[in-house]
Amino acid sequence: MDGPEIPLVEVVEVETAADFAMATGADESVIADLQQYRSYLEDWNQRMNLVGPSTLEIFWSRHAWDSAQILPLEPEALTWADLGAGAGLPGIVLAILQKNRPGFHMHLVESMAKRCRFLEEVVNGLALPATIHNSRAEDLSLTVDIVTARACAPMTRLLGYAQPYLKRGATALFLKGQDVAVEMEEATKSWSFEADILPSFSDARGRIVRVRKLGRGR
């Protein structure tokens, strides 16, 4: 059985900082912060595996634009939690974009201490409205508007990480790949949920999963 039909959208090609600014409306200060973030990634990637080295060459499309595209899906949301934040995607990008928005705050949740040290350097260096939590996602008691994740875990496990946040009223926005329908079918064995699969504007193979209700399966 094929997965749910995904609406066709035109992928927005973002290859440069100027392309990103055009796609998002980002001003010079945002572009400067993203450039500095890219430099942090390049530096720290020599010491630990944060992102694939080849993806830094396509930073604006693969990392910046891929992360930024979820922001307009929930434009009123002020508090976010990025689970398995790792290299800071999408959390750092979103925090940069919303840096000067009153009331905005990003919680970066990461269980590996060395990755938290990277996140701390970026957050402090760029003066971002973010807090780093060196913890397992399901062990925290955060109340947020949106919980997000990218390249964190298969849907079955990811829903387990996100469940406490959704119980407290959050909506989930997960960045996923083209096999997400298979992951979601597998997740129905353990979970009952209402979800939409949305197309990605950064990659024709990508998907965004929005989950509003989540409970244990029958």
From TrEMBL:
<keyword id="KW-0949">S-adenosyl-L-methionine</keyword>
<keyword id="KW-0963">Cytoplasm</keyword>
<dbReference type="GO" id="GO:0070043">
    <property type="term" value="F:rRNA (guanine-N7-)-methyltransferase activity"/>
</dbReference>
<comment type="function">
    <text>Specifically methylates the N7 position of guanine in position 527 of 16S rRNA.</text>
</comment>
<keyword id="KW-0808">Transferase</keyword>
<feature type="binding site">
    <location>
        <position position="89"/>
    </location>
    <ligand>
        <name>S-adenosyl-L-methionine</name>
    </ligand>
</feature>
<keyword id="KW-0698">rRNA processing</keyword>
<feature type="binding site">
    <location>
        <position position="150"/>
    </location>
    <ligand>
        <name>S-adenosyl-L-methionine</name>
    </ligand>
</feature>
<dbReference type="Pfam" id="PF02527">
    <property type="entry name" value="GidB"/>
</dbReference>
<keyword id="KW-0489">Methyltransferase</keyword>
<dbReference type="InterPro" id="IPR029063">
    <property type="entry name" value="SAM-dependent_MTases_sf"/>
</dbReference>
<feature type="binding site">
    <location>
        <position position="84"/>
    </location>
    <ligand>
        <name>S-adenosyl-L-methionine</name>
    </ligand>
</feature>
<dbReference type="GO" id="GO:0005829">
    <property type="term" value="C:cytosol"/>
</dbReference>
<dbReference type="InterPro" id="IPR003682">
    <property type="entry name" value="rRNA_ssu_MeTfrase_G"/>
</dbReference>
<feature type="binding site">
    <location>
        <begin position="137"/>
        <end position="138"/>
    </location>
    <ligand>
        <name>S-adenosyl-L-methionine</name>
    </ligand>
</feature>
<protein>
    <recommendedName>
        <fullName>Ribosomal RNA small subunit methyltransferase G</fullName>
        <ecNumber>2.1.1.170</ecNumber>
    </recommendedName>
</protein>
<comment type="similarity">
    <text>Belongs to the methyltransferase superfamily. RNA methyltransferase RsmG family.</text>
</comment>
